[in-house]
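Hi R.,

Here's the chain you asked about this morning:
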Amino acid sequence: MQVRAARRRLQSPPRPTRTSPASVAPVRAPVWIAVPILAAGCAGGSHHAAEQQRQQQTTHGQPPKAAPRQGELPHRPRRVRGTRPRPQKQKPARAQRTLPWRSDGTSRVVFAHTKQVAVYRSPHARHALLVLKKRDGNGTRRAFLVRGTRKNWVHVYLPTRPNGSLGWVRARAVKLYSNRYRIVVRLRAHRLQLWRKRHLVATYPVATGTSSTPTPRGLYYIVELLQPSNPGGSYGPYSFGLSAHSNVLQTFAGGDGRVGLHGTNEPGLIGSSVSHGCIRLRNAAVRRLAHILPLGTPVLVRT
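And here is the predicted structure, written out as tokens:
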């Protein structure tokens, strides 16, 4: 749920030298945190979210063989002409997902540099697909996970519906940073893996969406970090907003159905599928992630 929030900066943004799209500044991306007046929410909040909202009022088979003709003798077989072998139908190759991190485990993220960032369908498009402000509704500086670069353009993942949307932004409208962290969520195992470059540094148990409101699989990234006003509430002390949106809930608790990664006040449910789509962690785990993960961190949700 997107709510109006009073902002405070967790750390001052670095002042790197301007880099070309093909190079990366070895600087950690800035992390921005918004302290909401109301508890932050998302499409995957606990079942308390709806209650709080009410209280607040806010393979093909082979063809059968032909039967022998009547009257044909077994000792006088009919002549069979040479025939071309029947081509075997091949299963279509499974599409390969392009991962945004490189062989060393690092990824790239860009932050909005100009007041507005125009997003284009391709570098040759005449008109912008959409225009995004430098900061979102909670005052968080816009971040985009980078998929690739081309001359004066950057190919980025977008924080909009549908999930997995891509676009092109001009390199002069953004600043480029390097990120050494990534998250991998395994739904069936109810596990979250924290990677630093090529090393797995921690694994945490999580709660995920139910069968009717599943956590959407795909490649996403962190777009914001919120600190709920009540750290003992259903979202815990911190809530990450992801670029993912629920495929079932178009709206939730006054928001647009954005999926979150947050704490919980029901740790006994960790390890099960009980949420509306969000990913719940124990509060100690989400506190640790909140202090090390920058905006733009890739989040791969897989089976």
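One quick note: The longest strand covers residues 218-226.

Cheers,
M.
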